[in-house]
Amino acid sequence: MGLEEKLPSGIVLTSVEKLAGYMRKNSLWPATFGLACCAIEMMAAGAGRYDLARFGMEVFRASPRQADLMIVAGRVSNKMAPVLRQIYDQMAAPKWVIAMGACASSGGMFNNYAIVQGVDHVVPVDIYLPGCPPRPEMLMDAILKLHDQIYDEKLGPNREKVIKEVELAAMNAVPTHQLKGLLA
Amino acid sequence: MAENQQGMFGAAGTGDTSGYGGLVRSTASAGSAQRPFGGYFDQVADDLERAYPDFADAIERVVVDRGELALHIKRERLVEVALILRDKLKFEMSMGVSGVHYPDDKDRELHAVYHLLSVTNNQRIRLEVSVPDTDPHIPSLVEVWAGSNWNERETFDMFGIIFDGHPGLTRILMPDDWQGHPQRKDYALGGIGIEYKGAVTPPPSDRRSYK
Amino acid sequence: MSTYADPYASSRETTEGTVFSVTGGDWDSLVTEIGQAKEERVVVNMGPQHPSTHGVLRLVLELEGETVTEVRCGIGYLHTGIEKNIEFRNWTQATTFVTRMDYLAPLFNEAAYCLGVEKLLGITNDVPEKANVIRVMMMEFNRISSHMVALGTGALELGALSPMIFCFREREKVLDIFEFISGLRMNMAYIRPGGVAQDLPAGAVDKILATVKDLRHSFKDNEKLLVGNSIWMKRTEGIGYLDLAGATTLGVTGPVIRATGLPLDLRKIQPYSGYENYKFDVVTADTCDVYGRFLIRINELEQSLRIIEQCAVKLKSLEGAPVMVADKKIAWPAQLAIGADGMGNSLNHIREIMGTSMESLIHHFKLVTEGFRVPAGQVYSAVESPRGELGAHVVSDGGTRPYRVHFREPSFNNLQSTSAMCEGSMVADIIGAVASIDPVMGGVDR
Asked: Where is the NADH:ubiquinone oxidoreductase-like 20kDa subunit domain (chain A) (predicted)?
């Protein structure tokens, strides 16, 4: 619609943001991207005991065109990485990614030739969820944190302001490889 | 098997727990097992001899170890022996090919190990074929057991053993344009060091290892 | 439809004809192109990301109308290099890797590997009886949970949505048992070379018997949904036909070959871990089709419950027995226990190594840092996993690390039979056939 881009920053835009955030977070549709063991826990999260339907998320859309959220559940091998990127590209904005499990977040216990060491090498990730595999309750916690993030997302001129601020902060921050801890 | 092992290792059976010795340990490789083999292995060997008169010529070595019979076969005779095992000795099912890479075993670096199961007689047997790195060709057993198809592709993918006569020998686990054969001993594990706030954890291949 | 040209939707000419990539929303452009093409045959890619292909399996189909003329499987999308990773770890640490191969039956992977290591060590008969009973019980529970996923997802792929929820409900009960005993729901690394990681907690046997009673009652619900259901039977009878000759030459084991009538079950013909002491039946069918395999899985659930009950009776009399082999140079030292902060060394063990016994401390140190050594040689040990014969070819060079471990995965060999089962049938039948093979891609690709 583009309505949010036309509104000036102010009480109306804030209300539209809140409304849009509320709508988006309450019917986030995940894309089926279950790869390995974490996929089974994801299925268990969608099943009877740990019910994802109470968040409006039990419809795992097979087609990425109809999905908002890609939960990368499982280890991504080098052969699967282009497929992952293709699925991510086919999703329509706004889209979010949860890297579920240790293998998706960082390569996990498989530090070798075959596994991509973290899907953030391939797609931008919003929430990293550790665990091997993470319990369904942990997955739901990650989803709820994502919901909060989505609720607070700004639109229009507010969004541009936020983007500028984040970029400035990132440019002024200490680079990761220069962060030294106790073992350096 | 490595003939001479050197370097860091701990103690087995002695009180030495230092593990930093410049000790050199040599392991003698086992020769062929002598008759009687024990269990059903004698019957299998007898049946094979009866059905295949060139038995002594084709079998390089017989190893009976830990309750299992392993026949080391020359690669030229592999298909004949396999056909006889399937038809006369009733080893109907093949459990697939497993490759092993022994870089120290000059001219016999790549081993292909076949496990066979006889359902009628409830027996298991192992066939082993050794080929050199310079000429890694083994005849394919797809004509004998159709299930060897994917297993041979996997062994080719992981070790570089080329199975002659295979209907479509391509990579199966790695991407089609991958270079190298990952499970060989001279192929690096490919891990990366994990760095966090200045501390580095080396990948598993670079960590301190005990022999 | 939009006139936006999708970069991924394309068609290209190959030696086999025109290959179309369909991305959704462009069906009419696809149909126009096909209409203009001279050939009747279409190659369709059911890509690695697909809701019905049981994991990251790629099926390349050549279709003539709705009939499938050729099926090829593309695998390797989950290849993790576990077998190579193991070569850089201890014999005991390898258990944690091996457990993640076939992630629906982690205990079977561990059991095959540990039986192989124990055979190499020569301690197969020294593994304590309680450890064997616990192994058998946990493996049978795992068989139940694996079959639940197979039945649930198989039904889901063919369009039946309720069995999925029902089956996962039963699976959660089994996962509760796993969590109670080993600390984790999945990928537990509970079976270790020499025994099991820790003893049963107090009250385990009663909880097990209560769960068995509960499951037996719930399985009736699952049966009522699908067994004898005419729609289900129409979808599954006569589909995915693979007879005994085909199964034998393809090296297919498990429910698929038992559906041809051959009672091939390693638990009966080559028993391990004391399976010869339990009374149970081998379930077979003689229809060689998807419905037969489905019935086999349903009936195997009851047989597993029988075995678990017998195990529970044995466990009642084995209170306080050891669960690890007695040889201190091999046994993982700490009797692990679940404390306030998770699983770790039990306080008794810490008291002993810190206060009482220097030898225990040294053993603990050496075993955890260096690990035990396994004499050189190679073995092949096989277990009957829910999918078929799971074999571990373990090669040792006398050191603290495995030299080569190769897993003969049943899903890998069973999946080869897809072409034999599906060519000549309809597209929808492929889904049923693949679901009846029940491949777990983690095991296929390792």
From this structure: 37-146
